[in-house]
Design brief:
8-stranded mixed beta sheet; 3-stranded antiparallel beta sheet; homodimer; about 350 residues; 12 helices; Rossmann fold; alpha/beta; about 35% helix
């Protein structure tokens, strides 16, 4: 069974880790040897598992709308959060960065009078230096990501949604801000009026993303921010490759596409998702998330605390799974991932 | 009195620090306010001192033939050694790098499978990131150096010899090597056949270098490697700006240009200078250094241990100063610098 997850940062990374490590039905992992792949070719799935006799793999398509230039270096916050989480390097306290990292370079930059509001640790900095150097050598972001994830021994395929420039821009009461400026420097306090995407007209999903989606038996939208983590991925993805589009509720037609709600009890587990729903005119709720994904998602996963919304979500034509969705421990992540896979498997 | 020093790395940095901190005759330091300067304009000397009623300054012209690209970052080893030494940040044990620096980013790069033989600490890395970012914004290396040295409060003007590409290439029994490859990766063990300079036909001394040389009352060649630290500076500098060229021994004509021997007792104090003399067919000695600079240098400073060579050096038409030239402590550096300034002042 081929699983493709769409992910932003912390929430996406947690579910992706669960999918990578999940016990049954993803048991019996058989790992093919690593191989280098040519341009435009889909990296062979490095996590494979036998499931009813079929060998499958896990591919995580990651938002790059948050990417930005930091002192001339290409920083990909969501790719790095997923990479560090899957590589077992993530700082579990902050969700971002490398556990135990030091900040000597950042302090030295500050002493040089350079801009230093974005917290980049020394080990994290190595990733940006290496990635930028690969990009300057003419590698794609996809190839750079593959080099990094393979070096860290990650047993899943991470794909940036696009190799092209694509920037999430947040229009606020304090003007239009680049995403990291809004998110980190302004601590997501400005009131959002609208979100737009620089480069959306020209950016294209990569051939690897399209192949992974075409070969997917099921797609899982991680509990990431719908507006700034998942929508960018959907924006660059050609509609026909999203399998449920003619599958309606997916009984018989299409392939399942599931979403896990990032809103639990009216709150975002992390970050500004709930605040964004409110500022954009929606009451933040699992149901609002389901409405946001209406027409795309066939299977919806909501927390027990929101069980009262299950009927409304089913009325949107979605199948539902009510379970514990808060992922604190690695065990939580594996359990939720296994439940979600079991849920979509019926229709895959 | 305007002093211009020509410097490479460690030896040059030590004498430059002595010149910056020197007591009488550089007493009575009067420091004008820092100011930003426009393109091509000589940064106003930030160390100034009254000397016989004249206000002067210290400018250090630094070799950039050792510069190289490290994972897409522009590294200027000699500029950084002088900067860190004058800024009081240098690692006095190694001579290079920042005291107390950590190597987390380098370790992380190694784990990513990236090339990591050049030792760059985390704080040092910040310099390369910042400089590269300024260069990519269209600043010159001169402007980037000024931004860095001013941020560190350095009370002297550091100038890279050129803003153009210029690379010292070492032809050895193991092939032609870039300088840092020869010096760091191969630990200067290959036998040198010849040295050449990539870019020497097109690289030009900067306007700031030319102005500083034109305004110099005296030039001091630091005890740096003649072949790979000083020759690159001389190669890009137009001959008429070197003041002694029609001054002969400088009695009455021209302005003094002094050299401090980097060879003491037949040995280099640091690095491959003695080995290079031998491999290029010269017996390494203070006299060999004087012969190397014959026709340019008017004043020569040699160590007491080499006092027996004083007559031969005088026979080359140079005035001589025999003194203790080994600079271990900061006090040594200040004392030697003051003696050298006193020595050239008679003819300035």
């Amino acid at each position: 069974m081929n699983i493709v997850a769409l992910a932003g940062g912390v929430g996406g990374a947690k579910l992706a880790q669960g999918l990578m490590l999940a016990p049954s039905p993803l048991q019996g992992v058989s790992r093919p040897p690593k191989m280098r792949t040519g341009e435009g070719e889909l990296p062979s799935p490095v996590t494979s598992f036998r499931d009813g006799g079929r060998v499958g793999g896990l591919t995580i398509i990651v938002n790059t709308g948050d990417d930005f230039e930091w002192h001339g270096l290409h920083v990909s916050p969501d790719l790095d959060t997923v990479t560090y989480t899957l590589g077992g390097l993530a700082n579990s306290q902050t969700g971002w960065g490398v556990a135990g990292d030091t900040f000597e370079a950042l302090g030295a930059l500050r002493r040089l009078g350079a801009e230093a509001w974005f917290n980049i640790g020394d080990r994290d900095l190595a990733t940006h230096v290496y990635r930028t150097s690969l990009l300057r050598q003419g590698k794609t972001l996809t190839e750079a990501t593959q080099a990094i994830t393979q070096a860290l021994g990650i047993q899943a395929t991470l794909l940036p949604m696009t190799d092209d420039r694509f920037r999430t821009m947040v229009e606020t009461d304090q003007g239009t801000l680049e995403f990291q400026d809004y998110f980190v420097q302004q601590r997501w306090q400005p009131v959002i009026r609208h979100i737009h995407f620089d480069g959306v007209e020209t950016a294209r999903a990569t051939p690897q993303v399209i192949t992974a989606l075409q070969q997917a038996d099921a797609i899982i939208i991680a509990p990431s921010n719908p507006f700034v983590s998942v929508d960018p991925i959907l924006k660059v993805t050609p509609t026909p490759t999203l399998p449920s589009h003619d599958g309606g509720g997916c009984k018989g037609g299409g392939r399942p596409i599931a979403a896990v709600s990032p809103i639990v009890g009216g709150q975002a587990l992390k970050g500004p998702a709930a605040k964004m729903f409110a500022e954009l005119g929606w009451e933040p709720s699992a149901y609002a998330v389901a409405q946001h994904y209406h027409g795309l998602v066939t299977h919806f996963v909501l927390d027990r605390i929101d069980a009262d919304q299950e009927g409304w979500i089913q009325a949107l034509g979605m199948q539902t799974l009510v379970t514990d969705t808060i992922m604190q421990s690695v065990e939580d992540r594996k359990r939720l991932a296994a439940e979600v896979v079991e849920f979509v498997k019926r229709d895959a």
